[in-house]
Amino acid sequence: MWMEIDLQSEVPIYEQLVDQLIEGIASAQLRPGDPLPSVRSLAADLGINLHTVNKAYQILKQDGFLQVHRKQGVVVQPDGMPGVDAAFRAKLARGLRTLAAEAAVRGMTEAEFAEQSAAVYRQLLTKGEDAK
Amino acid sequence: MWMEIDLQSEVPIYEQLVDQLIEGIASAQLRPGDPLPSVRSLAADLGINLHTVNKAYQILKQDGFLQVHRKQGVVVQPDGMPGVDAAFRAKLARGLRTLAAEAAVRGMTEAEFAEQSAAVYRQLLTKGEDAK
DNA sequence: ATATCTGTTATATAATAAGTATAACAAAAG
DNA sequence: CTTTTGTTATACTTATTATATAACAGATAT
């Protein structure tokens, strides 16, 4: 598979998986209805434990990004992705505040910060331009 | 002091301290040269351990946001804040990518995401408008 | 039917991180 | 010379992360 895990990172493996899968959906490398590898095969593929993969799948299922069919395996949500709710607004504001604060202290202007945000968003989408 | 800690939060206490102190500097509630409470008094004030406060101070000292004078205590960096270096650019890009990906999946446009980033930045600075 | 593959659940264990509790040290200030 | 500072060291508890096995129930194909 196209995923990569950094075992030396300070960010937990299951969290790396969650992030990469969401980025995969955002960049259209993963489309609604696309099947995901089974917890066992992906775990074996990455050289990690079954439960670590399962934890990531559970979180994404809980948030509505994935669906689970018995035996069919895990599938990218085909019935519409979850929208921008209050919980996400709070999470987004919290994350942006931390980043914006340090950026401001380091001398980055509001315009620069906003442009950097836009640039990252843009680059994310164009990464999956040639998704099959 | 003006700091507040959420003991029920999933984010470590020392990390909450780091974030809030940086936000304090960004909003000019903390100005260069301003003295910070001693590790013991702040710990007692928040009802936490001395070492938890010290860990936060150490991180901020390491990054150049604080200075330490023996006996004078901890002081907000008076000799110019650290600038935008490669390490911060990477940290910023990483953090923004995670947030942008979920925002995109949830249907937020690039313009909306950028505007939200600007809004958070703006609100951060205006929070300390009446800093003494 | 009967293996096989799926997610799921249940334990148990090890490794690491976070937080606390004490104690002590050296430097600076009163 | 006592006090307060950051700093260092040690020990302990708790929670999180990750792994290791095992087993179960539903779905699929042989």
Strand order of the largest sheet of chain A: 1-2
Number of strands of chain A: 2
Task: Give the CA-based shape of chain A.
Answer: globular
Percent of residues in helices of chain A comes to 40-55%
Helix/strand-derived category of chain A reads mainly alpha
CA(first)-CA(last) distance of chain A: 15 Å
Tell me the fraction of residues in β-strands of chain A, as a range. 5-15%
Number of helices of chain A: 5
Q: Element order, helices and strands of chain A? A: HHHEEHH
Mean of residue pLDDT values of chain A: 94
Q: Characterize the largest beta sheet of chain A: strand count, sense, and whether it forms a barrel.
A: 2 strands, antiparallel
- Return residue spans of chain A where pLDDT drops below 50 for at least 5 consecutive residues: none
Largest interface between protein chains, with number of residues from each side: A-B, 41 and 41 residues
Radius of gyration of chain A: 17 Å
Regarding quaternary structure, what we see is: homodimer
Q: Topology, pairings included?
A:
2 copies of one chain form a homodimer.
Chain A: H1 13-26, H2 39-46, H3 50-62, E1 66-69, E2 73-76, H4 86-105, H5 110-126
Helix pairs in contact in A: 1-3, 2-3
The first copy, chain A, binds a DNA duplex (30 and 30 nucleotides) through α3.
Short description:
The first copy, chain A, is built from five helices and two strands.
Task: Give the tags.
homodimer; 132 residues; globular; DNA-binding; 5 helices; mainly alpha
